[in-house]
Amino acid sequence: MSVIHVTESNFRELLAGDRPLLLDFYADWCGPCRMMAPIVEELAEERSDFAVGKVNTDHDPALAQAFGIVSIPTLVVLKNGTEVRRFVGVRAKEELVAALEG
Questions:
Q1: Is position 77 annotated as part of the catalytic site?
Q2: 71 is catalytic
């Protein structure tokens, strides 16, 4: 699967899915966000047992505000519509996978 570009209009649809969801809150100008981008893309391509979405905080500030995002990149793991884990800053791919599988 590929990365889903999440907006306010398609967010509810993603929450309704039965797979865990990894949301990457980012901005195009953010250096650490650009470092995380290939990792997030790899996860989306390699794994079909969870969904991977990206939220551009400049384009969808209300969604970022709803999640209380104050630093980027922030990666949020949701299961059954509930946040179970949050990562701020650059993280290893294995750490994200462990959170999604656990």
A1: no
A2: no
pTM (2 d.p.): 0.93
Residue 6 half-sphere exposure toward CB, CA atoms < 13 A:
25
Lowest mean pLDDT among 14-18, 23-27, 29-33, 53-57: 14-18
Candidate list 3, 6, 23, 33, residue with the active-site label: 33
Q: Which of 30, 37, 88, 97 is labelled catalytic? A: 30
The HSE-up count of residue 58 (CA atoms within 13 Å, CB side) is 6
Q: Which two tokens stand for residue 64?
A: 């970022």
The pLDDT of residue 53 is 93
pLDDT tens, 33-91?
999 999 999 999 998 888 999 999 999 999 999 999 999 999 999 988 899 999 999 99
Question: Is the bond preceding 73 in cis, omega lying within 30 degrees of 0?
Answer: yes
Residue among 26, 36, 31 nearest 5 (CA): 26
